[in-house]
Amino acid sequence: MKILFAAAAIAALSISPAAAQERGYEPSETAFAEMMAGDYDAAERKLLETARTDVGARINLAQIFVKKGKTREALVLLRSVKENDDIVLEGVDGDILSSHKVADILLLRMGARDAMASAETR
């Protein structure tokens, strides 16, 4: 199970700093501190190391990309989340969330659900 830490209430799923981690990982390995501090460059560097194999890291990296104005890159990451198996995420408040549902909500908040299909053709 993944744990999704969020600065705001995870149930609201706002585009806010978040960090995902496997149970047992240290928060320092998830870029949580960097994201909470608004150091998106440092958080991006950390998450790029794990985003290929960690769906939670892709969700978090997509949020960083939105913050940095890299909408196309965020769309590609969220599309990859949807194309992979749906995994269980645990919110900081204990709520159980679907990785696909989190990606859907983030896409809707971006106003980008329809743009997802064309993200890779631009």
Number of helices: 5
Strand order of the largest sheet: 2-1-3-4
Mean pLDDT metric:
74
Shape: globular
- Low-confidence stretches are 5-26, 117-122
Class based on secondary structure composition and strand pairing: alpha+beta
Q: How much helix, percentage-wise, in residues?
A: 40-55%
List the secondary-structure elements in sequence, H or E. EEHHHHEEH
Q: Largest beta sheet, briefly?
A: 4 strands, mixed
Radius of gyration: 13 Å
User: Strand portion, in percent?
Assistant: 5-15%
Distance between the termini: 34 Å
User: What's the count of strands?
Assistant: 4
Features:
122 residues, alpha+beta, 4-stranded mixed beta sheet, disordered C terminus
Write the layout of secondary structure elements.
Layout lengths: L1 E5 L11 E5 L9 H5 L3 H9 L6 H13 L3 H13 L4 E4 L4 E3 H12 L12
Parallel strand pairs: 1-3
Antiparallel strand pairs: 1-2, 3-4
Helix pairs in contact: 2-3, 3-4, 3-5, 4-5
Protein architecture, described:
With 122 residues, this protein is an alpha+beta fold. Helices cover 43% and strands 14% of the residues. The chain is globular and about 30 Å long. Mean pLDDT is 74; it is low at 5-26 and 117-122.
Would you summarize the structure shown here?
It contains five helices and four strands. The chain has 122 residues and is of the alpha+beta class. Mean pLDDT is 74; it is low at 5-26 and 117-122.
